[in-house]
Amino acid sequence: MQTLTIKKNPVILGIESSCDETAAAVIRGRTLLSDEIISSAEVQAKFGGVVPEIASRAHTDAIDEVVARALSTAGVKKEEIDAVAVTYGAGLLGALLVGLSFAKGFSYGLNIPLIGVNHIRGHLAAAYLESETLKPPFITLLASGGHTAVIYTKSALEFEVLGGTLDDAVGEAFDKVARVLSLPYPGGPHIELLAREGQKTISLPKMLKGEGGYNFSYSGLKTAVINYCHGMQQRGETVNRADVAASFQSAALDILVQKTVEGAIEKGVDTVTAGGGVIANGYLREQLGNACLKAGLKLVLPLKKHCTDNAAMIAAEGLVQYTAGNFAPLSLNAKASIPLR
Ligand code: KG4
Ligand code: ZN
Questions:
Q1: In this predicted model, what pLDDT tens digit does every residue of 193-228 receive, in sequence order?
Q2: How far is the CA of 143 from the centre of ligand 2 (A)?
Q3: I want to staple 292 with a disulfide (CB 3.0 to 4.6 A). Which of 31, 241, 299, 316 is the partner?
Q4: pTM given for the model
Q5: Under 8 Å CB-to-CB from 24, ≥6 apart: which residues?
């Protein structure tokens, strides 16, 4: 590759295929030009979760079309792309390899840099798409199907995890409780809808571990919901599913709001951001909004569609890595798990 001039507002193609969404997006600087997604979630829902082999095949079917759509919606020719950013982990290996191999072909064919993106860093970077001026330091609440953490984002490339889950991730807890309530996969959005019809009448345990710390434990909460439902059934009483959903949602999310604001105050920052599928939850967005307002903090939330898996966030993190000159060799391999740094 020739010597590369780092542009201020590069055109970046982002590709995501770590789980059940095949996605491609194009950005110019922080401006989103296109954002396409083909999901196999409906097929996966029949199995009650993501079947890796089905996910890989669905990505293979969809990748060509999703990228073509992203380029045409953006009105960008292949030759105008400055770099291609792709999720290389964490995720399902067979699924990741589809996007990664496609991106390598693109990078090689066009002689443009390849950027390997850590999926979680993508979730954290989604907020950049909402504000031209957003810049660290800030506190980020990460809440997805695999992660729950309060993170101090010191700079675009430096993170300090203040605390996180000691067992299940919050999204995982939503999915497991949804199963108990006979709701489809993924459970989060279904619990949110059902909770709107219920009241927080059931008392459930707090999920905080350690005095004044930031560590969460969700397995106890999930067990408490299961025990409550079984107990009611054994006594021949009807479970009010909407009340269970509302009580669980509040127990699972209120603590995240509280700890995020505490993190911002402790670190002396004036801005809060968030990322991950659970941040699409309307109740959580509202509670975070209220709490930040009360504490005098600025809140920058990604759009709901940029909280669940998407390629716009991968392109956004691609921009961070591009600006830092962090490019990947064509030998980059997919990884099932990678740390945040
Ligand atoms: O970030 P994401 O799309 O995938 C991972 O990287 O894990 O997160 C998926 C998780 C699932 O557990 C799903 O149930 C949850 O996010 N989720 C929600 C909502 N939408 C998605 N949880 C609560 N309320 C929602 N509206
Ligand atoms: Zn994700």
A1: 999 999 999 998 876 655 558 888 899 899 999 999
A2: 9
A3: 299
A4: 0.95
A5: 13, 14, 15, 16, 34, 36, 63, 66, 67, 69, 70, 311
